[in-house]
Design goal:
Layout (H helix, E strand, L loop, with lengths): L6 E4 H4 L33 H4 L37 E6 L2 E9 L2 E10 L3 H8 L5 H4 L3 E10 L2 E11 L4 E13 L3 E3 L2 E13 L1 E14 L2 E12 L9 H26 L4
Parallel strand pairs: 1-7
Antiparallel strand pairs: 2-3, 3-4, 4-11, 5-6, 6-7, 7-9, 8-9, 9-10, 10-11
Helix pairs in contact: 3-5
Length: 269
C-alpha cells in the first residue's frame, strides 16, 4: 500500500480566481456511475502558483532530452515566458503523431492530431465505439462511464488525467455526447467519423471529431480534431500543452491496441 495519496490538479477550480485550494484525492479508472453526478462541484484543486511553473509542451527528440521545435532546432530550456504563444499555427511530431495547433481566438485553439495505424478502418472503428472499454487501453482516461447508448449515439462521463511532476496529476472532467456518422466512400478509399461535444464540464468549448480514413486494406489514418476554449479566467496556454501531450499518448495507445487486435486475428504460420 502506498503511503501517500496523489494530488490532482483540476481545471474546474482554476477557472475561478477566488477559490483555489489544495486537496488530496485518490483516483480510479473505473467507478460506480451513480457516484458521478451530472453537475460537478469544484473539488480537485491545487495552488495556482504550481501552474505558473508548467512549461508549454513541446516534442523531444529521440536521442536527447532537450526540447525541440518543428524543424529540429534545440529550444531554450527557459520558462514559458520565453516561448512564442502568438503564432497563428504551430506544428510538431512526437512518437509518430503529427500535431497542429491553430489559434482561433484570444483564448481558444483548434488542435489536430493524426497517426498512421496498421489496421483497417473497421478495426479502429470498433475500438473507438467500444465505449465501455475505452479506459482499458487509453491511459489518459482515468474514468469512463457510458451513461446512454442508442443507435449511432453515446453519452459518456469522462475524467481525463495525466501525471505531471512531483506526484501531481492534471485532470479535467465532463459529459460528452458522441454522434457516429455513416461510412463515406471517397475516390481514394473510405472514411468514417465520430463527432463529439462536451455538454457539461470543465471547458466552455470542447468539441470536434474522430476521423478514420482507409486507403488500403491494412492501413488507416486516425485524425483527432478538437476545438477547445477553457472557462473564463483560465488562459488556454496553460492547458494546451497538457492536452497535446495527452493526445500523443492516447493516439499512440490506440495504434498499439489496433496492432494487437490485428496480430491476434492473423492465422498462425
Amino acid at each position: 500500500m502506498k503511503a501517500f495519496a496523489s494530488i490532482s490538479l483540476s481545471i474546474s477550480e482554476l477557472s475561478h480566481p477566488c477559490f483555489v485550494q489544495a486537496s488530496l484525492v485518490t483516483s480510479s479508472r473505473h467507478g460506480n456511475p451513480s457516484s458521478f453526478p451530472t453537475s460537478f462541484p469544484a473539488s480537485l484543486t491545487a495552488s495556482s502558483k504550481l501552474f505558473s511553473k508548467f512549461r508549454r509542451y513541446s516534442p523531444y527528440s529521440s536521442d536527447s532530452d532537450s526540447p525541440t521545435v518543428a524543424g529540429g532546432e534545440k529550444e531554450d530550456d527557459g520558462s514559458s515566458e520565453n516561448r512564442d504563444f502568438d503564432k497563428e499555427t504551430q506544428s510538431f511530431s512526437e512518437n509518430g503523431v503529427d500535431i497542429e495547433i491553430k489559434k482561433l481566438g484570444r483564448n481558444s485553439r483548434r488542435i489536430v492530431s493524426s497517426i498512421d495505424i496498421e489496421a483497417c478502418l473497421d478495426t479502429v472503428w470498433n475500438l473507438l465505439t467500444d465505449y465501455e472499454r475505452l479506459a482499458d487501453f487509453i491511459p489518459g482516461l482515468a474514468v469512463n462511464q457510458l451513461l446512454e447508448k442508442r443507435d449511432n449515439f453515446a453519452r459518456l462521463f469522462q475524467i481525463g488525467q495525466q501525471k505531471v511532476a512531483f506526484g501531481l496529476k492534471f485532470s479535467a472532467k465532463g459529459i460528452v455526447d458522441c454522434f457516429e456518422k455513416e461510412l463515406e466512400t471517397l475516390p481514394y478509399g473510405q472514411r468514417r467519423d465520430i463527432e463529439f461535444k462536451m455538454i457539461e464540464g470543465d471547458f466552455k468549448i470542447f468539441e470536434g471529431r474522430w476521423s478514420i480514413e482507409q486507403r488500403n486494406e491494412l492501413h488507416s489514418t486516425l485524425t483527432y480534431t478538437v476545438d477547445v476554449e477553457p472557462k473564463l479566467w483560465l488562459p488556454v496556454r496553460l492547458v494546451e500543452g497538457r492536452l497535446c501531450k495527452e493526445f500523443v499518448m492516447n493516439l499512440s495507445s490506440i495504434r498499439e491496441e489496433a496492432r494487437k487486435l490485428l496480430y491476434d486475428t492473423l492465422p498462425s504460420p
